[in-house]
């Protein structure tokens, strides 16, 4: 060990702090008994492209590269591609996984808004539907332009720019411009009148220092049930300018998305109205009759269906990164970024009439986001040490409001409406985020043993202003000065290693539609003194191996989740009552993961992953004056078992893969008195690489079949929030999954 390095005590300080904060139980995971039968599933490309081992890492990490991403259905959310990895549970009501109202993504029981996401280091926020601080990855970039994805279950990278990372991080990286000039194109057609066109122009390397690309994407598809479409237009661009050992890179992306919603279902509605039930559109008169209490065709309430609903989102996001090699072993990377968003969620409501003659109005939730930020990371190699330090700062101006617009009959209202006749509430939030971190990585025993330790400090300040209505206003700050992380990696042999990590993380309070400011002022004032930011402590221990034809890893983990906040729905989603925001105390998670790839020969591979996850509430909570006895109950939307399997073939011009996924039972009530059953879902992909034909080269034709066996199942749960109890199955917070669908893609280069 070098004696010159002055930060040597940092490792000991952090390890000691983590030992005090961690809790016992990791060793018990191996003895946990699985009580659900498991089987298989996954959907991504040639399995050998998944870097199962994450070699050298002290954390549980898997990476998926461009080959894997390129051979799934074009337009598929990269989050759906990650569904094959251990610990990951992804659900969506559409075959692409891009319909945002239905997108549900979790890792080890931590839900979508409790994870961290970045694109080329630029924070994407928590990717919730009514997002206040970012945008969904499907809007941030076209799937064809993603070069790789890195998933860290549990302890995310210490320097990740995220204020929501409790249980892991997902980092997306743009496919770099190519050194060769050319045009890449792809055309997809398929079920439900799907048409997706993608074209990308690369400049090639100019004068040995500059290269760039510009791409355009146009997608049009009808819903698989009901009336309406889910359409998107995107432009992506990126450049790289190299000067000496340094580089300046930049990107600018634009998205315009319009999507018509599916009707939220309950278990009782599925039994009474059928799996394919949806909103009334285009039958305006039936919607009017229902609003007047005249029901037909099995309908028995206002909430069984509405005329229509939909979402509009426009986003522009860009960044510049300066990567400097300052001197031998010292590098500085700085990124500045800007994101501008405009959004409206439309819902035809029978609860607020336009006038005496028209019992329906169009209710909107309207959003704007304007955020600017900077990240900077310094890396310094000195002796056996690599020291990294960095900072992240962001100012976000977010406005949200609830408005009503008059309607008198069927019309195309999928545009940005103005001049409402009524406003329920309007709020503005100025959120200032600052984070810095310091880490020391130490290599010992001829690099056989690697130890890393460090900490970050995070401060998120929200200033909420109430413009219209009675929702809460005030200042709310979440900060932790010392969030430590430590880990080790020890190489037993050149092909075997053990690893372990521990981390402490915090999720800041959230402004916007679902946070503590969504309460009334009185409710906020009564509870703000006891309001604490959510925190978690994650511990991992694992083993990685690699043989000539087999590679994989096994890991056990535990997590303690403190001060878990719940926004409890108090009425039907369309009514939009102020929520109840409660602290449900502690959650304990224990689990085990295994993943392996067996390459039979040059052409065949077999991928498998298995997850056992036991997430339990450890504290009861009060909903007003009512005790909700959730202690010992399973966390909502946290299946105990996930099992994936996929066989992949690559032989000459032919490629194919057949995969299936098993998802265990999921509860949508905190008291576990109702949930949705386990299910299998299979997918097939096959293609043929054509010879170059005249002007076109590298042509390929690909067939994708989603939900191969046409399984009827409940996909997303909790779309209108989770319930304390729903013994009769009447909570409308579920979405049914898409049936079997077929898609054909032709792609190539010029």
From TrEMBL:
Domain of life: Bacteria
InterPro entries cross-referenced by the UniProt entry: Beta-barrel_TonB, Beta-barrel_TonB_sf, Plug_dom, Plug_dom_sf, TonB-dep_rcpt-like
Main location as per UniProt: membrane
The keyword rRNA processing is annotated on this UniProt entry: no
Domain TonB-dependent receptor-like beta-barrel: 269-708
Keywords associated with the record: Cell outer membrane, Ion transport, Iron, Iron transport, Membrane, Receptor, Signal, TonB box, Transmembrane, Transmembrane beta strand, Transport
Domain TonB-dependent receptor plug positions: 58-169
First and last residue of the signal peptide: 1-24
This protein's name: TonB-dependent receptor
